[in-house]
Structures are given as C-alpha cells and as structure tokens.
Amino acid sequence: MTQPAFHRIDGVLHVENVSAVDLATQFGTPLYVYSRAALTAAWRAYAGACAGRRASVHVAVKANSNLAVLNLFARLGAGFDIVSGGELARVLAAGGKAENVVFSGVGKSAEEMRVALEAGVKCFNVESIPELDRLNAVAGEVGRKAPVSLRVNPDVDPKTHPYISTGLKANKFGVAFDDARAAYRAAAAMPNLAVVGIDCHIGSQITDIAPYLDAIDKLLELVVQIEADGTQIHHIDVGGGLGISYHDETPPDIGDFVRTVLDRIAERGHGQREVFFEPGRSLVGNAGVLLTRVEFLKPGAEKNFAIVDAAMNDLARPAMYNAYHAIEPVVERTDAPQVYDVVGPVCESGDWLGRARSLAIEPGDLLAIRSAGAYSFAMSSNYNTRPRAAEVMVDGARVHVARERETVAQLFAGERLLPD
Ligand code: LLP
User: In this structure, which residue's CA is closest to atom 22 in ligand 1?
Assistant: First the structure.
C-alpha cells in the first residue's frame, strides 16, 4: 500500500516522505506545502473517469496558480480554465498550451481578449451580450474568428455558501436562462464569432450531484433549441464546483461524479458532444497544508487564544466565508487539550483561522492547517505589510521550492517617495 500523502510517523505529521517539522525548520513558517502525489492522484481520478469518453478537464487556475502546480498539470495533459490575462500568462509560462485553454470571467477587457485571441485559446466563455459585442469587435481588429460558448445561468440552487453560489438568477454570472436562446441568435449573427459550445458553472464546494443534473438537463433543453435555430453546439462545459471534505462533508467521489455527469448527457441523447469539466478545489484543495508556528498562548476569561504566525492575509477563507479548515498539531502531545481560537497577528478581529479548537499545544509548536491547497495561497495578500508565505511541493523524499518567501523589500519596491 502506498502511504497517504499526509500521514503520521510516531505522532509527527509527514508530507509524503518528509517530516513537516523538517519542512518548517528548513523553509520557515508560515509555509504552504503541496503533495505532488496528492495532486497527481486527484488529476488521475478525473482523467481516468474521462478516459475513452469525449470529455476533457480544464484545471481552474484561480484555485492554485503556482507555476509548479500548473506545470505538473500541464505535464499530466491538462487543459486550463482561466479568468484573466494574468492567468493566461501563468499557464503559458508553466508549459500549458493556449489551444487547451478556456477563458471564463464576467468582465474580460478588450486587451485580455486581444492577447487571448492572438495566443489562440480554445474558447471564450462569454457572459453577456455586451461582452459578445466587444469580443466580436476585437476579433475583427485582430483578424481572427473568436470561438465562443455562452455561460448560461440555469437558475439552480447548488446549496452552498451564498458567496460561492453562482448559478442563481440573483447572481451576476451568465446569461439568464430565458434570454439564452436569443443571445445565441445574436452571437451566430456576429461575423467574427464562431459559436462552438455552451457552458455553466453553478457554484463551488458543491457536495451533491443533483443540482448538476438539473443544470445539465436545462442546458440540454437549450442545446436542442439553439440547434433548431441553425447553430451547432460542439461541446458542453459543465463548469467546476465539486466539493471536498474540510470537516465532515461527504462530497461524491471524483470518478463517480464524472461518470454520473457523462452518463446523464449520454442518456439524454447528447453523447456525441464533447464535455468539459473545470475543477479547481477538488484537484488541489486536499493536496495542500499551511504550516504555522504558535507565537503565544493567551488565556482569557471567555476565550483562550492561540496566536500563530499565519494570518488572514495568508489564508482568507475563514474570515471571508466563515470557512472551516481542520487544524492539527504537527507533533502530537499527550497533555490534556484546551479549547482555543486560533488567530493571526493581523490587527482585525476577523483575523481568525479556526474557532473553538481543542488542541494540546505550547508556544513554539507547529500547527498544520489542512485542506489549504485551493483558494488559499491564491487569495493571499500583503495586508499589514506581511510578505506572502513560501510554497513548496513535496515529491517523495524531495522538496521543490515552488515559490520563495517574499521579502519586505519586494513589497514596496514599486512605491515612490514624494518628490522634493
Ligand atoms: N469555473 C468557473 C467559471 C469558476 O468560476 C470556478 C470557481 C471554477 C470553474 C472552479 O470551481 P471549483 O471547482 O474550484 O469549485 N474562493 C472561493 C471559491 C470561489 C470559486 C470561484 N469560481 C473559496 O475559497 O471557497
């Protein structure tokens, strides 16, 4: 049996064959650590379920855009889902190919469109009529036809956190279901666009397949109407959004999810179309941890605080979404645990990483914040002039520095004092 990517040897957390204590000692804290084996296994779960089917996987770059992570996926044969010109540049720098890139996002600039057209991306996932107009104009200037898909808002409730639910009528995303047929007619009439597909993305951290199937059924209904109007739909992009287990969630297994989606599309008579998946979190989320060191313990009348050296600037998800990340001591102690709020040094009451956690810890101890591979480093900031953490990728017994720790000098290198 191969070891799980994160496991304990004599009570000490290891990432593959490397002790987390050694990682923290060598690279300092806060430190993001990714397991190459865990990333690869998640990719293979998607790719394996797609094998032999007309289906492909586009990694949502926003979840973790580190070049080493993208490079690993590119080597494994991944396509990519991007939302900015910056993400396109990262994909190309990481060895990805533009022809395997879908460009999502609700507010693409003309410049981003131009660069993506010239690079030759596979598809623009367009979200409004004004965006169609802009893309048509830019494509005319560049002298290329832009391949487009319209992101349709199927108005289904993915039953996830309101900030990460995107397929409801009340969300800013996509073309309203009732307007989609007309929007496709408009797109088909634009001389510099080539309609190639249809897409949706109903939310993130979804732990139930039912809303996907509802969204797919609605999309397929539309596909029939669009084709009746004379426009061919080659691919159906079902977006990303599959959840992971942070705490006690029980999301569907990746392979089951992919097969259920593909089977549904085939059963409805659309098996000849290519299907795209755009997963982010389910590929990278549980392949990373954030290591942090306890600076002080601060017992209080109402609460005990464990003040650690990672903060909301390193991991924003608890502050932003009230998100739960498991927190474990790197080295287990046998003392009786106490209940702590685990908080960072940033000057905000919202700077917390975990609340009411039962931990046996002392100052100087290391903690591992689990499930920190997705939307963690990628959402980090320099608030409080805190340099962003280093990122390393463990591969068996080897450790690759995927991103050096920032220095304070880098943080204000682009700033200027006033002139005399
Ligand atoms: N495709 C599109 C068009 C998206 O907007 C997203 C994520 C994905 C794919 C990937 O979704 P995933 O498989 O990762 O759920 N920062 C939030 C999550 C925001 C997700 C935004 N869109 C969080 O930390 O929970």
Answer: 204
Domain boundary among 248, 277, 306: 277
Chain segment 228-280, per-residue pLDDT in tens = 999 999 999 999 999 999 999 999 999 999 999 999 999 999 999 999 999 99
Ligand 1 pocket, Cβ-based, cut-off 6 angstroms: 60, 63, 81, 104, 164, 201, 204-205, 239-242, 278-282, 317, 321, 375
Q: Whole-angstrom Cα distance, residue 266 to residue 258?
A: 12
Domain boundary among 219, 251, 277: 277
pLDDT digits (tens, 9 = 90+) for 160-173: 666 666 666 667 78
Is 347 annotated in the active site?
yes
Owner of token pair 């464990």: 306
- Which parts of 178-245 are beta strand (E)? 193-199, 235-237
Q: Which of 50, 123, 200, 347 is catalytic?
A: 347
Range of the domain at 119: 105-277
Same domain, 117 and 201: yes
Sheet containing strand 12-15, edge to edge, reads 6-9, 12-15, 18-19
Same domain for 340 and 238, yes or no, is: no
pLDDT value, residue 264: 98
